[in-house]
Amino acid sequence: MSGPSSPRILVVDDEIEILEILKDILADEGYEVATAENAKSARELHRQRRPDLVLLDIWMPGTDGISLLKEWFENGAGDIPVVMMSGHGTIETAVEATRLGAYDFLEKPLSTAKLLLTIRRALETTSLRKTNIELRHQATPTPSELIGNSAALENLRAQVRRIAEHDAPVFISGEPGSGKEMTARYLHTHSPRANGPFVRVHVAGLIGHAGLIDIFGAEEGSHIHYGALERAAGGTLLLEDIADMEPELQARLVSAMRQGTFLRHNGFSAVPLTSRIVAAGRNELAHALSGGLLREDLYHLLDVFPLSVPPLREHREDIPALIAHCIDTLITRENLPNRRLTVGAQNRLRNHSWPGNIRELVNVLQRLLILGNGSVIEQNEVEMTLGHSGGENEEGEAILGIDLPLGEARELFERIYLENHLMKAQGNMAKVATSAGLERTHLYRKLRRLGIDPKRIGGTNKKTQASPGGTRSR
Question: How far, in Å, CA of 92 to CA of 321, rounded?
């Protein structure tokens, strides 16, 4: 796996002298440059490795630049900015190029200052557009950074900053909604790859052929589908719920990480792997390995730098800062009314158990801003909202929130359910298996998958309850 790379620019022009001049100028600015003298060569370079930007001359023998621009956009490369160049263009030509999707149009002889400014703006605009698309696709506007000053958060930030200096794969574990993606983004921002893309893929939803294409890409004639590994080139690729990845995809990922290259589906040329792999999951890798969910070779590749994100209940002192940040974000991003929480309301939120962690907190705040009236949020309104979104019932047992994705909601329920049975049975696995209606081996597998330590859960009662004979119950 290669380290972070500079933006790759493909320059297409039939004049050799111009190619050489542009290559020298752009290389001096730190860009990686590939050059092509005609459409045929440009197609091949475009296919071999995805460029971040294309400088394309309009008038070339054979296939002209306008036709090549149209071809690329029709074949699925519309997210790559293209800057057209011409020594004798007309207004009509420039209009046609921008109508077909070109980012800009530059006249020859090229001004170096204008050229570099256009390239910089095109790359920045493309990066911002990708970020905005990703934010719009988020179900809830969860924080994009690590918010809080607790000892737990300070320790996590310190670990991440140390790891960010290196380029090895990272595995981030934590409960659903606890902030694994935020941790990955913090790692990306504080690494040498910060100027590269951050691409997030939820692998649990990748099935069969479609999953293979989404990660590794595909070639179908002249059409190229760039997979996540290429979209994250020079940056960071976050693979969420890695233990749910299909075995074939795990095998392909192992091969790519070991060799530093991979093949697109139906492809025949090796593509360099230049993205940093960050995997995330609900359990520690060892649990996924012992449960048969993760390949042993992938386990060893990912377990170089393990990080554990604490659940929200373990750093409650950060809740006021999270509330302030999330409310500001919701007001700005979703144009919601500004409402102030009373001290009692904030205190109630701080003392909630938060089984859904930060994601549940965001959902609650969103509901309070949307459904409430007036400029002040009182404690009783918080109580009512928590009752609808995963609060506690009269016995103090956690009620599952309905705002989590189905897979995470199911896992959250299973964790709460089994931990409750373990506490009631004081860690006696035979009793838990009977009360839950599960085979003992199936119960052990579930506990391993969920990362539940029966000795820890059942041990709480064992230490505090004595048997009638004066000895501790077992």
Answer: 54
Check if 8-137 and 406-464 are the same fold: no
User: For 242-278, b where at least 16 C-beta lie within 10 A, e where not — what string?
Assistant: bbbbeeebbebbbebbeeeebbbbebeeebbbbbbbb
Fold of 8-137: Rossmann fold (3.40.50)
CA distance 7 to 234: 8
DSSP H/E element including 225: strand 223-225
**Mean of all residue pLDDT scores within the chain:** 83
Name the residue ranges covered by the structural domains of the chain: 8-137, 151-308, 326-389, 406-464
Distance CA 29, CA 149 (A): 39
pLDDT in tens, 380-435: 999 888 875 544 443 333 344 455 556 666 776 777 778 778 877 777 888 888 88
Structure-token pair, residue 383 = 């109580």
pTM of structure:
0.70
* CATH match for 406-464 among 1.10.10, 3.10.20, 2.40.50, 3.30.160: 1.10.10
DSSP string over 124-166: HHHHHHHHHHHHHH-SS---SS----SHHHHHHHHHHHHHHTS
Give the closest residue to 24 by CA, choosing from 116, 91, 122: 116
pLDDT in tens, 56-104: 999 888 888 999 999 888 876 778 899 999 887 677 777 888 888 899 9
Instruction: Tell me which architecture the domain covering 326-389 has in CATH.
Output: Orthogonal Bundle (1.10)
SS3 281: strand
Residues in the chain predicted with pLDDT less than 50, given as ranges, are 139, 390-401, 459-474
> What was the pLDDT predicted at 447?
80
* Class of domain 151-308 (CATH, top level): alpha beta
Rounded CA-CA distance 104/122 in Å is 8
